[in-house]
Amino acid sequence: MDRDRDQEGRARSARPRDGLGRPLPYGAAGVARQPEGVAREPAETVREAQRLLDAGMPFHAHEVFEDAWKSGPGAERDLWQGLAQLAVGLTHAARGNAAGGARLLRRGAGRIEGYAARGPEAAEAYGIDCTGLAGWARGLAGRVEAGSAGVPDAAAEAPRLLRA
Fold first, then answer.
1. Tell me: the pLDDT tens digits for 20-77?
2. What ranges in the chain are assigned the alpha helix state H?
3. What is the DSSP string of 47-81?
4. Which residues, in sequence order, are CB contacts of 161 under 8 Å at separation 6+?
5. Which of 35, 38, 92, 122 makes an SS bond possible with 101, Cβ 3.0 to 4.6 Å?
6. How many CB atoms lie within 10 A of CB 85?
7. How far apart are the first and last CA of the chain?
């Protein structure tokens, strides 16, 4: 059987996926996928990602951040890539992959801290709470590794992206 392919001929699984991005059997009811390659304004990226995080769909939020890092200015790559790593780290933790989840959460925290360290303008980019998000990620990583968080519920653990 040939691999599933998208309209451009690239290999792309057509299997439905659950809210954490895990493949389901063909024909199963899944969660709608995020369209790929969407160029959004930064505020729209943050709104859409927060909506998905709040719905317990961090894998899908990761895809929104991935679009931002691929289509946005190169100077912001660390910000969007770090946010994507936080979302996929939460995804792995919620799937029960404590080691992978913790590693990605810490990697994302480091990336957004590095971005914020460029100066006040970077640290306050688009109202994103870089410091708070890094603290959230490191805290969740520690709890997941220690086993004190169990397998976290993605919606219950969803971070707040914007400063209050």
1. 988 888 888 888 877 888 899 999 999 999 999 999 999 999 999 999 999 989 999 9
2. 42-54, 58-71, 77-94, 98-116, 120-123, 130-146
3. HHHHHHHHTT-HHHHHHHHHHHHHHS-GGGHHHHH
4. 46, 49, 50, 53, 83, 128, 129, 133
5. 92
6. 23
7. 52
